[in-house]
Amino acid sequence: MGGVFFALSRGISATLIALIVSFQPILTSFLAKIYLNETLTKFQWLGIILGFSGSLIIIISDLIDGLTIVAILAGIVGLVSSSLGIIWQKKIGSDLSLSGNNFLQALSAAIFHLLLALCFEKFFINFSNDFILAMSWQIFAVSLGAFLILMWLIAKNKANETSTLFFLVPPISALLAFLILEDTFSSFDLLGLFLSCLGVFMVSKIKIKM
Q1: 25: closest CA among 150, 143, 188?
Q2: Do residues 154 and 162 lie in contact, with contact meaning Cβ atoms separated by under 8 Å?
Q3: Among 11, 15, 24, 25, CA closest to 56
Q4: pLDDT tens sequence across 58-110
Q5: Which of 1, 18, 29, 179 matches a 20 to 30 Å C-alpha distance to 82?
Q6: Cβ neighbours, 10 Å, residue 101
Q7: Considering its fold, how many domains does the chain have in total?
Q8: Domain of residue 177, residue span
C-alpha cells in the first residue's frame, strides 16, 4: 500500500496504478507455483486471463495519464510487495491468530514508514474532516476489516485463488462510483465487470482439469 500511495502522490492516475496492481493475481500464481507448489488447471488459467481482461476493459481509457518513471516504479514495488506478502503469509503465518497477524503487520509497517517519514517527510497533518474520514476508513474498514478477511481467505484457500479476487477491484470501484459519485457506467464497464466476475468464479469454484 505504501508503494501505491507513493505512486499516487507522484502524479500517477488511479486507473493506471489499478492496472499495475491488477497483475498481482498473475504474479502471485507464478510465485505460488515456485514457493508453495500450488498449481492451477488450464481452465483456471483461462479464468485468470478473463479476470485480467475485465479489469483492463474498465481502466484502459485512462491508461496514459500521469505516466512517470518514479510513479511506475513505485507501483511495481506495490505490486511485487503485495504478491510476496500473500505468499509469505500463506507459508509461515498460519500458526498465528488473525488478530495477532494483523497486529504484527500493522506494527512492522508503522515502524518502517516512520523511518521513511523521518528521512523524507515534513511532519505536518491538516486535521480536516476529509482527512479524519479518510483515515478512519483506512483504519477500520481496510486495516481491521479487509486485511482480516484477506488473511482468513489466505488461510482457507490457495494463495493463487485468493489473489484472483483483486481482479474485482476495478469493476467494483467503477460500480460504486456510479452508485455513490454519479459517475457514468458504460456498457464496456458492464462487460468488464462480467468478465472479472466470471474469471474469479472459474479460478475459485471450478476445478476442472485440462
Answers
A1: 150
A2: yes
A3: 15
A4: 666 555 444 567 777 887 888 788 878 878 777 776 567 777 777 888 888 88
A5: 179
A6: 20
A7: 1
A8: 2-204
